[in-house]
């Protein structure tokens, strides 16, 4: 844990050093503006760890400024990195277009005036004369270029973050997917499962968020409701009121819940009891027979650190392999184990669909399915984007989602 904390703090420092160089040092001359920018960069660098630690300690007022800066910072880095090559090309073009600055530098040194003091060799750009053909003029061009890039990156980062806020805080979209299962009996054809994941009740999402999701699900007239983890980011004491509307969920064959990784960070034992009290049945490494279908649920892989990990052998021990089985598992990566036990369909969340493009590229390296329907080792896996968000209240390229899964008997 200490090593991870030191690594995280080191990365935060390096990121803000890069932002300071591109947005402050490269765009200003020495003076009060550079000093003000330096102070701001340091304050923003400190804000991130303070937010991460403070919100865990109940200081939820830190969430909005801290997580909003995290989103803008992310897109600033993306834009500035994308601009590095065009900026380099522009600088080389300016240098070729204005080669006289080299001879001017010689004149400023000892090449023209042999009597000039040696200290002239060490003049900084800010100290050199701002005249045509001198490095002062070259500095002005570089400042103009750097300022243009900084303004473009800043406006783009703020604009994309603003769009992402609107998406994240808006109503989840309702997606419908039809999935054929070879073993599904005709009597179960058309079974409807309302799937929701990653609601993430916490500092920025409360009771009204839960109520909206419950109303959406109840409007589906589903046979089964499946809540596949990451319901909360806080304790029952902090978020019990926010989760209370779950008691109003309606489903013909019941509502079910499996743990996600964030339940283990939030007091999973209390939340399992609370969810059961609200009328959802926790499936904790267990399997139920629902007419001609087996519905199973396993704990999240993070539970292994809490002696409460997934147990596939226990879950599927003695099952009738002629019956189709639908597995609720928070993380798509759990499908590798599910496939070994003949699972026909796994329903998952966890990925948020990447939440913020291009961060989705990193998530896809960890999980075998990022969003939607895929296949892992012969097992079908459907991954919902989730109805909430974690960290920044921003979603770009991965809108919040509640999914109605309709199972069909294969023809």
TrEMBL record:
| SUPFAM superfamilies in the record | Metallo-dependent phosphatases (SSF56300)
**Annotated GO biological process:** lipid A biosynthetic process
> Keyword Metal-binding: yes or no?
yes
Give cofactor(s), names only: a divalent metal cation
Highest taxon of the lineage: Bacteria
One Gene Ontology cellular component annotation held by this UniProt entry: membrane
Q: Name one Pfam family in it.
A: Metallophos
Q: Which GO terms describe its molecular function?
A: metal ion binding; UDP-2,3-diacylglucosamine hydrolase activity
In this protein, which residues make up the domain named Calcineurin-like phosphoesterase?
A: 191-353
Q: Which UniProt keywords apply?
A: Hydrolase, Membrane, Metal-binding, Transmembrane, Transmembrane helix
Q: Where are the transmembrane segments?
A: 6-24, 36-55, 67-89, 144-165
What InterPro entries does this protein map onto?
Calcineurin-like_PHP, Metallo-depent_PP-like, Metallophosphoesterase_sf
Q: Carries keyword Metal-binding?
A: yes
UniProt record similarity statement: Belongs to the metallophosphoesterase superfamily.
The name this protein carries in UniProt is: Membrane protein
**What is the organism of origin for this protein?**
Phytohabitans rumicis
Organism phylogeny: Bacteria, Bacillati, Actinomycetota, Actinomycetes, Micromonosporales
